[in-house]
């Protein structure tokens, strides 16, 4: 069986596992605000799905997105998920033989997109306590130059959960400007940060933000995201988008309702997610060798280091899957550091997080005894 067939079959098994507890994909599994569900039902009842949506998204949604992202003077283009947004951006801005600079760890797929476009991918290691598990401006400055066409920054970082300060973002934006590079600011997790600064404020000429509805609103299976940039960049992206017939109408109606009611319900999502983080931290502290290098995380996830406990991340993932819990091995994000940690997603019901914590000592022991795991993705 080919690699993509194996990968698809793997996730098909997960999706068809009754009662599976999804603690590995960073998606929001809390019940949405009733207005979100009602918006979907109303759209179905009206038959809205019979017509294509506007190619850049409903105007109401586009306005709400830029306001929510803190850049009301920018322009939004709605996409079929943030992954499609990143694909489109990479295909438009990457150039053959020029550098696409990012961090390690980061989110892996944009690197594939950049390589497909012919770019050289430069990964800067940030898995280091001395630099607070973040890209430093000095590190970036030393890595860029005339050959740099794009800098890709996931902020807050997936999988580490670190978030840059306003001063750091200001300096990173200045460095991007100094070499005339695009700054791709992947803001997928900004809703969970205590403080987030859009790089667009300091470098509107060539900053491109990507925005997701999977993590904070929980529309992962409905595929909705956006690109945010100045109108000239959006005009360029709009000339050849992956989908020129508009994104899912039902998803867009749900997103509008979610943004309109966000102040009423999202603070409780943040509270419950932080409660789950604290529970995992306490459980890990009781198992010798486990530790959380970043806590509290500024995203809806934490990483748990397993290397000092003598546990391979893949073995721990496999052990939990036997108990109906899906977590993620570090190698999904980084080959260089992936043997050190697992990632736990925590916008999930408290009972799921508590079950993870309850099983942790037993799963660590089992992973030590059964270190070999089948292929994971």
UniProtKB/TrEMBL annotation:
Q: Which InterPro entries match?
A: Aminotransferase_I/II_large, AspAT/PAT-like, NHTrfase_class1_PyrdxlP-BS, PyrdxlP-dep_Trfase, PyrdxlP-dep_Trfase_major, PyrdxlP-dep_Trfase_small
Top-rank taxon of the source lineage equals: Bacteria
Cofactor(s) recorded for this entry are: pyridoxal 5'-phosphate
| Pfam families reported in the protein's UniProt record | Aminotran_1_2 (PF00155)
Keyword annotations of the record: Aminotransferase, Pyridoxal phosphate, Transferase
Per the UniProt record, which EC number(s) apply here?
2.6.1.-
User: Which one GO biological process term can you cite for this protein?
Assistant: amino acid metabolic process
Aminotransferase class I/classII large domain location, by residue? 20-358
PROSITE patterns the UniProt entry points to: AA_TRANSFER_CLASS_1 (PS00105)
Q: Which SUPFAM superfamilies match?
A: PLP-dependent transferases
Note the Gene3D superfamilies from the entry. Aspartate Aminotransferase, domain 1, Type I PLP-dependent aspartate aminotransferase-like (Major domain)
The cross-references to CDD domains, in alphabetical order and at most eight, read: AAT_like (cd00609)
| Keyword flag Zinc-finger | no
Molecular function terms, GO-annotated: pyridoxal phosphate binding; transaminase activity
Top-level enzyme category: transferase
Give the UniProt family note.
Belongs to the class-I pyridoxal-phosphate-dependent aminotransferase family.
- Please identify the protein, giving its name as recorded: Aminotransferase
Q: Which organism is it from?
A: Bordetella genomosp. 9
User: What taxonomic ancestry is recorded?
Assistant: Bacteria, Pseudomonadati, Pseudomonadota, Betaproteobacteria, Burkholderiales
């Amino acid at each position: 069986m080919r690699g993509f067939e194996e990968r698809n079959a793997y996730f098909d098994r997960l999706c068809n596992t009754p009662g599976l507890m999804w603690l590995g994909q960073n998606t929001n599994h809390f019940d949405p605000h009733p207005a979100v569900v009602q918006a979907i039902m109303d759209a179905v009842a009206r038959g809205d799905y019979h017509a294509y949506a506007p190619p850049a998204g409903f105007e109401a949604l586009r306005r709400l997105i830029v306001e929510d992202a803190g850049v009301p003077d920018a322009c939004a283009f709605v996409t079929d998920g943030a992954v499609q947004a990143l694909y489109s951006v990479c295909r438009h801005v990457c150039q053959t033989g020029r550098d696409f600079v990012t961090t390690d760890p980061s989110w892996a797929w944009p690197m594939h997109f950049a390589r497909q476009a012919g770019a050289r991918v430069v990964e800067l290691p940030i898995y280091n306590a001395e630099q607070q598990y973040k890209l430093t401006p000095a590190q970036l400055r030393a890595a860029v130059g005339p050959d740099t066409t794009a800098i890709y920054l996931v902020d807050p970082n997936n999988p580490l959960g670190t978030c840059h300060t306003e001063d750091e973002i200001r300096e990173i934006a200045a460095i991007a400007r100094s070499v005339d590079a695009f700054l791709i600011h992947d803001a997928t997790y900004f809703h969970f940060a205590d403080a987030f600064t859009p790089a667009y404020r300091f470098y509107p000429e060539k900053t491109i933000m990507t925005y997701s509805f999977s993590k904070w609103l929980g529309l992962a299976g409905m595929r909705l995201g956006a690109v945010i940039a100045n109108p000239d960049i959006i005009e360029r992206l709009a000339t050849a988008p992956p989908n020129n017939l508009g994104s899912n109408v039902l998803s867009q109606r749900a997103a509008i309702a979610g943004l309109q009611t966000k102040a009423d319900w999202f603070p409780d999502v943040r509270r419950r997610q932080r409660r789950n983080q604290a529970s995992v931290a306490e459980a890990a502290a009781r198992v010798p060798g486990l530790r959380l290098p970043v806590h509290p995380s500024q995203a809806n996830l934490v990483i748990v280091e397993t290397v000092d406990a003598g546990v391979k991340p893949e073995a721990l993932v496999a052990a939990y899957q036997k108990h109906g819990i899906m977590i993620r091995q570090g190698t999904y994000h980084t080959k260089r550091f992936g043997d050190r940690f697992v990632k736990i997603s925590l916008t999930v019901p408290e009972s799921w997080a508590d079950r993870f914590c309850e099983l942790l000592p037993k799963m660590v022991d089992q992973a030590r005894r059964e270190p070999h795991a089948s292929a994971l993705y």
